[in-house]
Design goal:
Blueprint: H1 3-7, H2 11-21, E1 23-29, E2 33-40, E3 43-50, E4 56-62, H3 69-72, H4 77-82
Antiparallel strand pairs: 1-2, 2-3, 3-4
Length: 84
Amino acid sequence: MTLYQFKSKHESEQTDIVDVKGELIAEREEKFCSVQLYQVGSFYVEVYRHNHFNVVTRVSSFKNTKQLDTYLKQINIEEILSSL
């Protein structure tokens, strides 16, 4: 599936695709929601879930790895370096 094909789907179909084909790679918290980052083939998908109601409020998909910068702060490279 291409990013274009994914974006052409309704949000409920997008979340179904993420559930089946997505690989969870990171999570972060925002003020009222949690954001899960998935890799789906050659692109990434952020799924925003409202913390209190546990419903999807937004799905954002992209290929540009610059948008992954938000998640880089969470990676502890000390563990990686100590294993070398």
